[in-house]
# Entry
Amino acid sequence: MTDYNKGGFWDFLPYALPVLGGAIGMFWARYGTEHFNPVIAVAVGVIAGIVIARGALHLADRFGWRG
# Structure
């Protein structure tokens, strides 16, 4: 059973990476390319952050890194 009251890095990761991905998507849409839809850039960043966070948590659970 997962203890959700522990806190720490692994519990913060699923919230931080999608926000960071969205911020990177906003930066990319603003400064990276011309004629690029910012909504798509932010959505791709958020989805990539979610996928990376889920993969990292899966590996952390599998290898016992979460404690």
About this structure: The chain has one domain: 9-63. The mean pLDDT is 83. The helical segments are 9-32, 38-63.
